[in-house]
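Reopening this one. Same input as before:
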Amino acid sequence: MKIIPVSHGTFKVDGGAMFGPVPKSMWNKKYPADKNNLCTLTIRSLILDTEDRLIMIDTGIGNKHNPKFLSFIYPELIPMNEVISKHRYKPEDFTDIILTHLHYDHAGGATYKDKNGEIKPYFPNATYWLSLKQWELMQNPNPREKSALFPEDILPVKESGQLKLIKGKYDLYPGITLLLSNGHTSGMIVPVIQNGEKVIVFAADLIPTLYNLHLPWVSAYDNMPLVLMEEKKLFLQEAVKSGYIIAFEHDFYNAFATVNYDEKKDKFMPKEIISENEI
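Same output, byte for byte:
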């Protein structure tokens, strides 16, 4: 399996929101904010190229949002056609799209607005994979997440017959297993990729940056922070035991890392930082 990290660009969020209860005096040393207290986040996806499947995990923000919405997040986006053509792929080449969840920065690129203003699935031949819980959330969003969910990111996919919903752990393809997490948002998919001796886990917003490894470093965007902390703990225990490589979807500075547990400090720590070209 060929694993290709790709970037859809960057956007900015409030640092206090990104690191929740952690004081700025602590997080700003690790992940510095600008003069407006904004942290730059990347939008990282993985392309998985196998013998007979071409898969993308998450699709970035896309091209449909209005300028007023975008003005709050200061995006510097790379169009999808540039992202995939750089690696000599076309939209019709993709067989599967995994949407970890439906927040705009993860699912916005799943659809696009054509020259006539019609919104269509960007990948015409792909099956889109989503959890049933996320689909149900889109039908009845809670007040905390409503502003991050846009029906036009997924309804055209459903209407085209390309959407498949999973209810729990799902083996998508030999070497690719989809797990579910609920702390950040209900039914978020966490893809686990076995590639030879390497196991790479696309952590999505379970652990969006390297500095969210520490259990209390949760985000104000997490719906159920205590649930997320427990999910992180169980996941990181397995990551240490099995030597997982964790892919950070939003870390501007660090793409991948393995993890150790420091008993003296009672915290999970990065063991080895791995660059994109080492995957």
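So the earlier flakiness isn't reproducible anymore. For the record, The first strand starts at residue 2 and ends at 14.
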